[in-house]
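Next up, a specimen:

>
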Amino acid sequence: MESNKVSIRFFNDREVRVVWDEENNKWLFSATDIVRAINGETDYTKAGNYWRWLKRKLKDQGIQFVSNTHKLKITASDGKRYNSDILDSNEVVTVAKNMPNKKAAAFLDWFFYSDNTIDGQSKKKASSFLKAVS
């Protein structure tokens, strides 16, 4: 899958990279970025290691993602593109709910209800469009 629609959102100053999956008509989120955001981690390597550990832990508990996570080349902070695990919004919720820390609840509030979420931005655009048409 290749996408040219990329969005970046920030949760507590942590970047969450998102790409649009045109074929399935949904946003896909970088798994490592989700981990970085929830844990407040600055180091991509540590976040990647944590993600691999969490993915194994969830699999051992019988929680396996339908697609066993997808792979997509996402541009990293060094400007290079690397294969990254990506999650759809349901998988993001599963990961957050299974992370062993209390910051996940704040992340889920941001993910679902913030005006800065992708859905929040879409709602604001739709609202302003409808006001302009009325």
Notes: The helical segments are 31-39, 44-60, 89-97, 103-113, 118-133. The first strand starts at residue 6 and ends at 11.
